[in-house]
Amino acid sequence: MFDLFLQFVVNGLVNGTFYALSALGLTLIFGLMRLVNFAHGEFYMIGGLLGWVVTQKLSMDFFSGLVVVVAVMAAFGWLLDRYVIVRIRDKGPEPGILLTIGLAIFLTNTALMLVGTAPQKVLAPVPSTPLLLGPIIITEVRLFAIAVSIAAIVGARLLIQKTKLGKAMRATFQDATAASLVGINTASIYASTFALGSALAATSGMLLGSIYVAQASIGGLISLKAFVVVILGGMGNFAGAILGGLILGVAEALWGGYVQTGTVDMVGFALVILILFFRPYGLFSVRAERA
Amino acid sequence: MKFERNVLAGFLVVSVLLGIFLRNDYLLHILVMVLMYAILASSLNLIVGYVGEFPLGHVAFFGLGAYTVALLSTPAVGLPLAAAIPLAALVAAVFGWLIGRITLRLNGPFFVIITLAFAEVLRLLAGNWVALTNGPMGIAGIPHPAVFDLLPWLAGKRGFVMLGAALLAITFFVGYRLVYSSAGRAAVTLRENRYVAQSVGIDPFRYSLFVFVVAAFLAGLSGAYYATYISFVGPEVFSFPFTATMIIIVLLGGKGSLIGPVLGAVIVTLLEAYLREFNELRLSLFGLIVMAVVLFAPDGVMGYARQRFQSFFKEAGHA
Amino acid sequence: MRMTVLALSVVASAAAMTAHAADTIRIGVIQPLTGSVAYNGAADVNGSKIAVKERNAKGGVLGKQVELVVEDGECQPSKTVNAAEKLIQQDKVPVISGAFCSSATIAAMSVAAKYKVPLLSGVSSKSDLTERGNEWFFRSAETDGLLARAFAKILVDQLHLKKIAYIGVNDDWGRGGMNEFSKQIEAMGGETAMKLYFDHGTTDFYTMLTRVRAAKPDGVFVAAETQDGSILVKQMKEVNLQSKVFGVGSWATADFVKLAGDAAQGIHAAVPYAYTIDRPENKKFVAAYKTEYGELPGKYSAAGYNALNIIMDAIERAGSADPDKIRQAMAKTDYHGPNGSFKFDAKHQAYGFDAVLVRLNDGKPEIVAQATVTDDK
């Protein structure tokens, strides 16, 4: 009985790590730019499909392919911010929401037109043979994906805390006017942040494409799950996103395991509704002010 | 005001005339869809244009209206549609009150996401609570209004066009009265500057909730209309395609005006019909259109028209 | 920009509408071309196209070439209704083949009855479709009930399955299939460990499979289509599920085998068609399909092929493209296809064709047992 519970928890933690990585980009973009990127799931999706292209069509190995995907998506994010998002930057939250919704619809359907609905596989460097760790079963490729996820999360953290770019980002986050007064090119910072967010989303898309599948229509659900995580952890809260991801993963696994597998997706939404009702700034935020 | 009222009335008259004289069933079908979307988009427009928030989960009320009609009118309960349709709208309004009470305390992206969460929960419930909703198999065999059988003139799609025009007339009436009432003006003040409004004693929450409930009622009406026309309701009534179409109609037509949603409904429904075969191309195009409107013409067609033809709108009392 | 798009689309569709020739016989087809069963819908259309190509090469039907008008029903009732309305109202087809998913077909059935146009489904397997008294509807596919009866005995007696877990897609077809099979197997003494459902398009089955594994069943029955099924089967190997797996759906198709890879090894499937069926009509069909599409045909390709052939035979027999005459002629069908002969009973349910139990071995569906779908109820 306990073994089963443990297996569910482990499954949940595995999924949770992936949720955390996927939501990280979203929370960074919101934290810095106060832009809610509804196309986040589509960046994830493109990362997955590009991963398929580089590993299966161009026969690159996983890591070189990942570098290519990250570079492409970072560039894409940068350009998108510099030339499109900048136009609506100071116009309040609504245009950003609508713009990214339109972008999401466009990206999903263009991908469907180009690739079709068939799910594709990203080739991982590690097989999916099951390993037995005590009473728990986990596959090699999942362990691999967790390792890469953790590396990516740590890498992003280091970027933000230890590099000059990261410092400039944090300064702009705190006060954009003051930051530009001390000579920080805020336009460039915004673009870099958006690029970082896109790259993180694409990385998680490619990783998960190697464990599950990559398909063009997955964007909507991923966006929703990422929002759930970000709201749980507090928008802009790095550590919160990680904890939020793990919580969501375990909550879903336990619900699916003990109650009903069909309604698992509802767990996230129920959590969101409860959180927004009682603690709209997230479980881990200090602010208590409401609308 | 007068111009607007005349255009809206004119649209209704044209719809009725088309309903009488058109023989082609497929064109009548398109007309029914235009009417349905006009009602739905008008309801969304009330919140977007007059409360200033974006309820991405607005489709929840559409779906609730549809399912209520389905559940009430099928043989087990057997309520006649003349009762089921208004009841469906009322049910939607009640849910609007419940959901609005919770969600309207938040704004910006939080509001967007929580309304979306509610819509998704309803969709999942509809798909999994098989005992009540028959799950993904849906509820089939929803009858059409009995009055269609009594008057042979109303047979087939023509009856639905008349029903749609009647429901749209109600929508226009409600919307018009709301916008030009003191409640409406309060809502506009809130939209323009929340703090100033509060300082003159307007309680943002009460007015927002009022508009939200009215919008939910109208969306429920639209859902009820959909249910009796298609005669089949499944969890897809809560799904994204309706939301996407609604958003585009409101944006394209121009938010914050009563004509906007109607104009948008005509354009978008026609586009959908012409591009039926190219499903993904059409949606891809929709995405681009949304982006283009946001970037270049945030007030939609009506906004553009207002700029160009300012003389017409000089007498318009509201923004 | 908006105006240009509108203008372009108006021009494009006007051009399309004037392009149709008046001297062809048009047959409507409604299949899911998008969504998670798009694979199978596309396969059905491919099979249909081969049937039409063959017939046109022999001079067509009633001396005219046959033209297919294909619409995407997306496996959704509302979209299918739209598609049917368009086919009947705008394209004026006298007969339709569709609509794949049972719930979509039910919706199409009422449209067919309303406009009095015959509708033939080569795929929809929910048992009660032919029990609704709709005289415009025909079904040239097996029903879940008939398939279950044909195979429950084999599964319990030959495979010695005592405790069975059921996994199915959460829709008409999945639920219907699971109900029929579990009913038959329980009648033979098998025990039902659990019944779990998942939604179309699910990619993560871990939690569900963990529950199944914990119950330690001898066998796992799966009702899933190509896309969902291939992912499910792979994850079964990943969670180290040792039970025997048998499924209904598209399990013997080349698509499924390609997607599932090694995980498909040793799986049993109960299907009405496999490309390894030993009949001369089948060998011809397989060769033609392989030449045209570069892959081997599966259940749905055969379904489309058979459906169109039955329709074209009926038109020929009716001597005209009048919907009512086609309907009367269809009832007298006596068709020999790649998987057996097809006749319709009084409720327009087809009988007399094969149902095979296959075992996937190195990607090839080896026939383990064969039965004939009979018309006794």
Fold and architecture overview:
The complex is a heterotrimer of chains A (291), B (319) and C (377). Chain A has helices at residues 2-33, 40-57, 62-83, 93-115, 140-162, 164-174, 176-181, 186-211, 219-233, 238-258, 264-278, and strands spanning 130-133, 136-139. With 291 residues, chain A is mostly helical. Chain A has a two-stranded antiparallel ribbon with strand order 1-2. The relative contact order of chain A is 0.21. Chain B has a single domain (2-250), classed as ABC transporter involved in vitamin B12 uptake, BtuC. Chain B has 319 residues and is mainly alpha-helical. By secondary structure, chain C is α/β, with parallel strands linked by helices. Helices cover 44% and strands 22% of the residues of chain C. In chain C, strand 3 (96-97), helix 4 and strand 4 form a beta-alpha-beta unit. The N and C termini of chain C lie far apart (61 Å). The model of chain C is unreliable at 14-21 (pLDDT under 50). Classes of the chains: A mainly alpha (291), B mainly alpha (319), C alpha/beta (377). The B-C interface holds B 24-26, 29, 127-128, 135-138, 140, 230-232, 234, 236, 252, 267, 270-271, 274-277, 279-280, 285, 289, 292 and C 1-2, 5-6, 9-10, 12-13, 34, 71-72, 76-78, 81-82, 85-86, 89-90, 103, 106-107, 110, 170-172, 175, 199.
